[in-house]
Amino acid sequence: MMGYYGYGNMMGWVGFGLGWIWMLLWWAFVILVIVAILKWLSGNLSNTGKNSNNNVSDILKERYVRGEITKEQFEQMKKDIK
């Protein structure tokens, strides 16, 4: 006779033993996702300034090549944006 506790209680201990591992893995996953999102956001924010500065230089070069501005204006504007 198995008695009151039987196999059901044994399975409960196994489930409890594995439960804390799953909980630990879950919180590690949540923390990693948060860190990845923060890195992605900080990378996008820091690249925004670099891209806009390069974009301004590219526009300035295009205007000079098309003849919209003179060499003196190009040089002065180039100094102004740096």
UniProtKB/TrEMBL annotation:
Entry keywords, A to Z: Membrane, Transmembrane, Transmembrane helix
InterPro entries with a match to the protein in the record: SHOCT, VbhA-like
Entry's transmembrane regions: 20-41
Tagged with keyword Plastid: no
Domain of life: Bacteria
Stretches assigned to the SHOCT domain: 59-81
CDD domains xrefs: VbhA_like
Pfam families: SHOCT (PF09851)
Protein name: SHOCT domain-containing protein
Organism: candidate division WWE3 bacterium RIFCSPLOWO2_12_FULL_36_10
Lineage start: Bacteria, Katanobacteria
